[in-house]
Specification:
Blueprint (H helix, E strand, L loop, with lengths): L1 E7 L9 H13 L4 E8 L12 H6 L4
Parallel strand pairs: 1-2
Length: 64
């Protein structure tokens, strides 16, 4: 079993789901069978930009 630590950056400090997203990600990751514990920290450095988005997501959003 693994302990998982995630540093998560949001697209904007004004993100409407900022208050719930960190806890939701932590619960979902912790529920995986191979995960013993999960910790998610919200960070702002490095700042998010489009280059951090996968090609698949960019295509889905019509950005490519």
């Amino acid at each position: 079993m693994s302990r998982v630590a995630i540093d998560m950056t949001l697209t904007s400090p004004a993100c409407p789901v900022a208050g719930s997203l960190v806890g939701e990600v932590q619960r979902k990751v912790a529920a995986l069978p191979q995960v013993k514990s999960a910790k998610v920290d919200l960070v702002w450095d490095p700042p998010w930009d489009k280059s951090r988005m996968s090609e698949e997501v960019a295509l889905e959003l019509g950005l490519m």
